[in-house]
């Protein structure tokens, strides 16, 4: 079996990324580390592959970014933040969208592997082993975005369980007791975590006050305004069943509010609505949306900084950054 970059990394006690840097960007690696890696290569009779030889001198200055949906303002701002840092350090960003499809995600990762990008920022569709693991074995650094990372990688995420609880507690403090959650599908971890937070807040309210609090789930397949409208139509068809809605993102909230108000349901008097992300649109619609804010651009910037740190050499230590969300109150929950 051919000797791999991972084999050399183990022998030299460095990361695969450091071995890749010795092959492709030796000038950024400390001399002592470079000498140790080169000695390991000689001991193992390691032969760089054709792509690595072609990249000698660090000609490839691309960073791959795999997100769920390029049309979603949340991911657009994450990408914008990542691009700011990449460009400032002489890298170009290559963007692909998985549409929450594992097959599309894996195809994007394979493409980036073939193109020998310097690194990848990945917003995963699912948890568990993926092509990203094989990228690391090939010496391509990967940072996980908007998803918890493992011990062998860096990650940047937001505490979505807390975010869901913050949204629900706000509604409970307003006296709302019949809450609907609009989001999903369940395989999307971010929405599943937000629902967990909503249920946790409802459970705590029942325990501490004895109040009768219910949580109804309306699952959607896509996180768009149109799918929010469809959920809103289902809610409007059973008036009085709910007096509050937590949506998995702001686009869904905009659609829910549009459909409810079109059906004569008053927002927030009859039904209060909370969104998630705090994209620009949330403040611009006819009924401005109360939203759980995520620092979208900063998530992208932080992820890119971690990736560049990993590319810089063997002094890198994997980090897991987690931002705390905050509530921004607007007219969709509090009548002016």
Automatic annotation (TrEMBL):
InterPro entries according to UniProt = HTH_LacI, LacI/GalR-like_sensor, Lambda_DNA-bd_dom_sf, Peripla_BP_I
The organism of origin for this protein: Beutenbergia cavernae (strain ATCC BAA-8 / DSM 12333 / CCUG 43141 / JCM 11478 / NBRC 16432 / NCIMB 13614 / HKI 0122)
| EC class of the enzyme, as a word | isomerase
Pfam families, alphabetized: LacI, Peripla_BP_3
Q: Which GO terms describe its molecular function?
A: alanine racemase activity; DNA-binding transcription factor activity; transcription cis-regulatory region binding
Record-annotated HTH lacI-type domain positions:
3-57
Read off the PROSITE patterns from this record: HTH_LACI_1, HTH_LACI_2
The UniProt record lists the EC number as 5.1.1.1
Keyword Isomerase assigned = yes
Q: What is the designated name of this protein?
A: Transcriptional regulator, LacI family
Q: Which UniProt keywords apply?
A: DNA-binding, Isomerase, Transcription, Transcription regulation
Q: SMART domains, per this entry?
A: HTH_LACI
């Amino acid at each position: 079996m051919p000797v791999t970059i991972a084999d050399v990394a183990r022998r030299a006690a460095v990361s695969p990324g450091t071995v890749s840097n010795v092959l492709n960007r030796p000038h950024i690696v400390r001399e002592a580390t470079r000498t140790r890696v080169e000695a390991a290569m000689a001991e193992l009779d390691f032969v760089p592959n054709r792509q690595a030889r072609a990249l000698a001198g660090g000609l490839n200055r691309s960073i791959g970014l795999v997100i769920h949906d390029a049309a979603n303002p949340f991911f657009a701002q994450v990408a914008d933040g990542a691009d700011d840092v990449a460009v400032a350090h002489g890298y170009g960003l290559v963007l692909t969208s998985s549409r929450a499809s594992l097959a599309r995600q894996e195809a994007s990762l394979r493409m980036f592997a073939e193109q020998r990008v310097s690194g990848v920022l990945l917003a995963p569709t699912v948890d568990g082993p993926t092509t990203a693991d094989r990228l690391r074995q090939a010496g391509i650094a990967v940072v996980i975005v908007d998803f918890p990372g493992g011990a062998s990688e860096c990650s940047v995420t937001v505490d979505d369980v807390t975010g869901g609880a913050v949204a629900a507690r706000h509604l409970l403090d307003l006296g709302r007791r019949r809450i609907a959650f609009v989001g999903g599908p369940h395989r999307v971890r971010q929405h599943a975590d937000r629902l967990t937070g909503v249920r946790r807040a409802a459970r705590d309210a029942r325990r501490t006050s004895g109040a009768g609090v219910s949580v109804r789930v309306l699952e959607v397949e896509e996180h768009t305004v149109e799918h929010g409208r469809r959920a809103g139509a289902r809610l409007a068809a059973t008036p009085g069943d709910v007096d509050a809605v937590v949506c998995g993102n702001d686009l869904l909230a905009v659609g829910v509010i549009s459909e409810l108000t079109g059906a004569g349901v008053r927002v927030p008097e009859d039904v209060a609505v909370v969104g998630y992300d705090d994209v620009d649109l949330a403040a611009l619609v006819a009924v401005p949306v109360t939203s759980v804010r995520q620092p979208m651009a900063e998530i992208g910037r932080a992820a890119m900084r971690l990736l560049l740190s990993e590319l810089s050499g063997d002094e890198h230590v994997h980090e897991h950054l987690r931002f705390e969300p905050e509530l921004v109150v607007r007219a969709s929950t509090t009548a002016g």
